[in-house]
Write a structure and sequence with these properties.
With 682 residues, this protein is of the alpha/beta class. It is built from 25 helices and 14 strands. Among the domains are: 142 residues, 3-Layer(aba) Sandwich (Mannitol-specific EII, Chain A), CATH 3.40.930.10; 132 residues, 3-Layer(aba) Sandwich (Rossmann fold). Strands 1, 2, 3, 4, 5 and 6 form a 6-stranded mixed β-sheet that branches. The chain has a 4-stranded parallel β-sheet with strand order 10-9-11-12. Strand 9, helix 6 and strand 10 form a beta-alpha-beta unit. The radius of gyration is 28 Å and the shape is globular.
């Protein structure tokens, strides 16, 4: 690695455009022209998506737009010294030094470590001064390569995980406001940004330098993309307070449990490190200050934090729950699809019996295909059975840390029991999380503190959250299901059969496996089971065709929107989940859209319902009928006309995909930008 930056990637004293979008686009084009990326517009879109979440301008005339992108083939730095400067959102005016940091989507650790060195160098005045006075592109390349260690007299050692930033000996005597018990305050900090390349390390260096200047004992743990080295637990235990300057969840946050905490976005750690240190010392002196164990997402903390809206706070909580739920959806759903592929559409009828009574040496009547299909189907069904509980449990975890997990899982299981679906799981998880969070803020006697996280909080949280679900949600849901079923039965007996398809499509896409969805599906399968006619185009078969087609729309639409139409409007987690949603939707597994709906229900659900209504009505109008109750495209042999089925599904998918893109692009973008993406659970 000796050419992260080359002269062809350097632009000196040029006018690259009047705004930052033009500058980023011009630098992306240079990366492509140098043969280091395949698509300038894709690289620009990924960098711009990061820019929209949080502007990358920094004090001192610096800007560092950056991105991980599938378009990048070689980790690169594109540099521009602008004349005149361009506004990148810094508080002190336009930027004249701009680095576009372009990393491959799955960059190797050594690449990320090199790129993080650049971010740290930008905090040093001699480095930026040298760039401003460089005579030509070759001089810039030499300055940057020296700073990032690519030009050395000896071969560079392999890059390792970034170590914690060590505390230096205080260069100044701490003022009385920064003393605790007559000694300099001891503070530990964590920095982390969405990409883990630039802001993470710049904030770490800024906090470290401020700690030295203010005379406090401060140690920082930067959690970057290339890994991190955890602070010794003894250092954390001896700390008076914690600073979290992060845009994503802190990894292994339980290590800091009980410490007074100050939270903000990572950019504030760069721009206002002294203010954060002062606030941390004040929190250490305040017995009522927010503490790490009280609230992971800190949804209602009274600690000084960077102000974000309630909608963004709730969205961040939901995103955490979704990130832990995704493996259940993806793994379970794909196994169910494999079960249909191997065992046919009727694999659901006796799969449980087959796996308990048969084996490789005692195959069922359907042979090896039925046996393997039954095994895959039952494993997948079991995995999907944890979906709502995992969602609720980790929503509660995002609010109250580990004490919230048990009451959250229980509330999710109760939501399933009460036919409340994933919407009930969200409500149950929020209830459990906030109850656990409130209990965690109490100050019990010392003898009781040890029992709080393992006994008292799970017990009381489960009773309150699950009790509210049972007492107040169960009967209304049952009544609604009965009302809907009766209404559908009455409509199906009339000439308004297309209207029935529209209504069924709306219901299938409203709660994605919840009670409304199940009413529509149960109505269809009940009619299928009781059909006494051999006419494949009888009403029960038409209803089944409309229900299955509409149920495929939400995951397919989310897959199309997040992986093809508008990647920049979706988080990296959602884009990854969108890849799995293609197969889940094709298999008629509506739950494939739940990660999207749980994170952004007010946009995803209406968009899904519009497409579902189009598909349901069109399926009825085209006379699509299905003899199979499940399976999607894997049971096309049981659908007539199959081409009508595909047309209906395609139409609804396109309508929903464009609808969700429009809603995400033009409705509530400010709220969305405030909630950063969370990493997928390991």
């Amino acid at each position: 690695m000796s050419d992260t930056i080359i002269p062809e990637l350097v632009s000196l004293d040029e006018n690259l455009g009047a705004d930052k979008a033009a500058v980023i686009r011009a630098l992306a084009a240079r990366v492509v022209a140098a043969g280091r990326a395949t698509d300038a517009e894709a690289l620009f879109a990924d960098a711009w998506a990061r820019e929209e979440k949080d502007e990358t301008g920094l004090p001192g005339g610096i800007a560092i737009p950056h991105a991980k992108s599938s378009a990048v083939t070689q980790a690169s730095l594109a540099f521009a010294r602008l004349t005149p400067g361009v506004d990148f959102g810094a508080s002190d005016g336009p930027a004249d030094l701009v680095f576009l940091i372009a990393a491959p989507e799955h960059a190797a650790e050594e690449h990320l470590a090199v790129l993080s060195k650049l971010a740290r160098s930008l905090m040093q005045d001699p480095f930026t001064s040298a760039l401003r006075s460089a005579a030509d592109a070759d001089a810039v390349v030499h300055i940057v390569r020296e700073a990032i260690g690519e030009e050395t007299s000896a071969p560079a050692a392999p890059a390792a995980a970034p170590a914690a930033v060590p505390a230096a000996e205080p260069a100044a005597e701490a003022s009385s406001e920064l003393l605790i018990d007559g000694r300099p305050a001891r503070i530990v900090a964590v920095t982390a940004c969405a990409t883990g390349i630039a802001h993470t390390f710049m904030a770490a260096d800024a906090l470290t330098a401020a700690g030295v200047a203010e005379g406090v004992d401060l140690v920082v743990e930067p959690q970057g993309s290339s890994g991190y080295k955890a602070l010794p637990q003894s250092v954390i235990d001896n700390a008076d307070a914690v600073i979290f300057a992060t845009d994503v969840d802190v990894r292994e946050q339980q290590r800091f449990a009980g410490k007074p905490v100050i939270r903000s976005g990572v950019k504030r750690g760069i721009e206002q490190p002294v203010a954060m240190i002062t606030e941390a010392v004040a929190a250490a002196r305040n017995p009522r200050a927010a503490r790490v164990a009280a609230a992971t997402a800190d949804a209602a903390s009274d600690a000084p934090t960077q102000s974000i809206g309630w909608g963004a706070k709730i969205q961040r909580i939901l995103l955490t729950g979704v990130s832990y739920m995704i493996p259940f959806v993806a793994g379970g759903g794909l196994l169910i699809a494999l079960g249909f592929l191997l065992g046919g559409f009727n694999v659901t009828e006796n799969a449980a019996t087959v796996i308990t009574q048969n084996s490789f040496w005692d195959l069922p009547a359907g042979g090896l295909g039925q046996y393997l299909g039954s095994v895959a189907f039952m494993i997948g069904k079991t995995s999907m059975g944890f979906l709502v509980s995992a969602l609720a449990g980790y929503i509660a975890f995002a609010i109250a840390d580990r004490p919230g997990i048990a009451p959250g899982f229980v509330a999710g299981a109760v939501a399933v029991l009460m036919n409340a679906g994933f919407i009930g799981g969200i409500i149950g998880g929020l209830l459990a999380g906030f109850v656990a969070w409130w209990l965690g803020r109490l100050n019990p006697p010392r003898w009781l503190r040890g029992l709080m996280p393992v006994v008292i909080i799970p017990l009381v949280g489960s009773i309150v959250a699950s009790g509210l679900m049972i007492l107040f949600l169960g009967r209304p849901i049952a009544a609604l299901m009965e009302l809907l079923n009766d209404g559908l039965t009455n409509l199906a007996g009339t000439s308004a059969i297309v209207l029935v398809g529209v209504i069924l499509g709306l219901m299938m896409c409203f709660d994605l496996g919840g009670p409304i969805n199940k009413v529509a599906y149960a109505f269809a399968t009940a009619g299928l089971a009781s059909a006494s006619t051999s006419d494949i185009h009888a009403v029960p078969f038409l209803i089944m065709g409309a229900v299955m087609a509409a149920g495929m729309v939400p995951p397919l639409a989310m897959a199309l929107a997040s992986t093809v139409l508008a990647k920049n409007l979706f988080t990296p987690v959602e884009r990854e989940n969108g890849k799995a949603a293609w197969l889940l939707g094709a298999s008629f597994i509506s739950e494939g859209a739940i990660p999207f709906a749980a994170a952004d229900p007010l946009r995803v659900i209406p968009a899904s319902m519009v497409g579902g209504a189009v598909t349901g009505g069109l399926a009825m109008a085209l006379g699509v009928s299905s003899l199979a109750p499940h399976g999607g495209i894997f049971v096309l042999f049981a659908i007539d006309p199959w081409w009508g089925f595909l047309i209906a599904v395609l139409a609804g998918t396109v309508v929903s995909a464009f609808a969700v893109v429009a809603l995400k692009k033009w409705v509530g973008r400010k709220e969305l930008a405030e909630a950063e993406a969370v990493p997928v659970a390991a």
